[in-house]
Amino acid sequence: CQSDGSSGAHPGSPPVASTLAGGAAFLHSSSTSSRLVSSGMLGDQPNDGPLPTGLRDTRRLWKGLIEEDQGRELHVAYLTALGLEPGSAASDETRQGLQKILLGRRYASRKWSELEQSHALSTLVRMGGRSWRPVLARLYAQKRIATPVRRAAFITLGERAADYDAAGRRDLVDYWRDAEKYARDPLTRGLALIALARIVATDLEDPEGAELARTSQAPDILLREARSAPTTRIGFAVLALAIAARNATSGGDEVTRFRTEAEQVLLRGFARSEGNAGKRAPYAVGLGILRSKAAIAPLEGVVLDSNVEPMLRGCAAVALGQIGSARPS
């Protein structure tokens, strides 16, 4: 497909995006899923018709989702495609329907699975606007919500941190505190740490930010987890710390302390995990994300050691590329 959404086909051919978003009857479900997601990726392409960009295809996708029960795989593909369309093309009916689906209510005469509920949440948030904020806040306050939905809530929390000002980000940390105590399993807890890291990182990117480093315990939570998290989530904890601290380059003594301590935690963990490639790899990746100049020598040592597992050598090489080492490999 060309950048203008055309296919280079003969005049009179239907627009690619509209064709992809059309009926699903003639393709196997896996092919149809790929086709639907592709249609969403083309959703921001201009069209020549009277309707605004994305509106026709959003309507088709929503109609295809709710009019016929086609199985979970296709429902997830429809939801994913909808989330890729321009948010301005989503009707109130679509947004209200997504809210009902993600909250576990019957909609379009059927019950929706937990996986479908989680994708409905992601789609609603990616559409933008204000409708998702009260829904997300409501989810954080609930003790009993489906695990896939809770995970999606953490993912979207981190994704949308940039939509908030400094005061709003403090509210997000409060939401996070309310929700993380219900994150029982390692994956959900790990995603919660990544979400907190993205909130802190967004705050540190703001020229008028760094409020969280000075006024909240969020950085200390990330440091503590990276030092002492169990094996089942240490990888998440290390990556979360690196994500949060990579932009901690200015903003006062608290920010400098956070960056320094984060680098020390990652360097120490990399050194102490020698001989355990699986445990050591996240530290290598984290040092690359952090762009730690102090890590260049130990990472090069791993890359040049033919006795080290290829997976770890690859992680170390990527980390060196992120740091920007000028020395030849």
What does this structure look like?
- The structure is a single chain.
- This protein is an all-alpha fold and 329 residues long.
- The protein is 64% helix and 0% strand.
- Residues 1-21 and 23-28 have low confidence and may be disordered.
Question: Into which percent range does the helicity of residues fall?
Answer: 55-70%
Number of helices: 17
Sum up the overall morphology in one term: globular
How many extended strands? 0
Class by alpha and beta content? mainly alpha
Distance between the termini: 38 Å
Mean pLDDT: 80
Rg from Cα: 23 Å
Strand portion, in percent? under 5%
* Main beta-sheet annotation: none
As residue ranges, the low-confidence spans are: 1-21, 23-28
Please trace the helix and strand order, writing H or E for each element: HHHHHHHHHHHHHHHHH
Q: What attributes does this structure have?
A:
329 residues, disordered N terminus, 0% strand, mainly alpha
Topology:
Layout: H1 16-20, H2 29-41, H3 55-67, H4 72-84, H5 92-102, H6 114-126, H7 132-140, H8 147-159, H9 166-180, H10 186-205, H11 211-215, H12 218-228, H13 234-245, H14 253-272, H15 277-290, H16 296-303, H17 310-323
